[in-house]
């Protein structure tokens, strides 16, 4: 799913990214549903879950910020949230004074029917290029 979000606030605690555009870089086959920024798992099984978030900032903005994304699972039966994976960070600098950071998370996990999978991030004000953001899962 390609995101169309643009955040204006900074946050040090992770917040759920809820606005994603269905289609593009995401598999949503075999009965998967999208609800409130979360993908609902249709059947028990092992899935590959992935997300890549592009963060851009101007060279004059504070560099001492912490960027983190994580993939989370919420089970409606137990009413418990579980963090499945942390972020992986790649950094680069463009020619025109912008910093670009791609944060990638991917994992294989056994999920149960009706589990809800979602992405949380910190410092969301730097998510400025929504066409580069992806989130999805598919059954292995």
From TrEMBL:
Q: Name one Pfam family in it.
A: TNF
InterPro entries the record matches: TNF_dom, Tumour_necrosis_fac-like_dom
Record's SUPFAM superfamilies?
A: TNF-like (SSF49842)
Domain named THD: residues: 19-140
Q: Which Gene3D superfamilies match?
A: 2.60.120.40
Regarding protein family, the annotation reads: Belongs to the tumor necrosis factor family.
Would you tell me the protein name for this molecule? THD domain-containing protein
* Source organism of this protein record: Tegillarca granosa (Malaysian cockle)
